[in-house]
Amino acid sequence: SLHVTVYLIHPMFKLWMTLRTSLGRVVDIVFLTSYIFLFMASFVYITFICPYLQLPKFISVIIAVEQIRACLKTYSFIRENAYKVLYPWHKDDTSGPAVWYAGQMSPTVGSFSQYCYFFFCPTLLYRDHYPRNREIRWFR
Prior knowledge:
140 residues, mainly alpha, 5 helices
């Protein structure tokens, strides 16, 4: 159930983005409530399923920590992309978030492949593009 909820976030976010233009503020409240309910339900599910399956405490802690990591990562994705939907801007804008992130952010919402890459890369902050060096410096 953990990965199902995580992979539902991106399609739900895209749906919120399209419905928001026509239905307004009501959609914001409905989707925020469903987002909160989704993760509360996943934590409740974990607290009941681990004792039911008679998992060792160590394994239960690992599952709970993984759930917390998933919540942090999806929150970061939504936080970074909701700003783009709520306050649209263009790449040529000199006062928008493009200036703050120095080219690491684009005016479009991240794709599903970017979201999947972010979910498995070792960082907690979502960016559309991560800075990379042209070559690997093995010895400094």
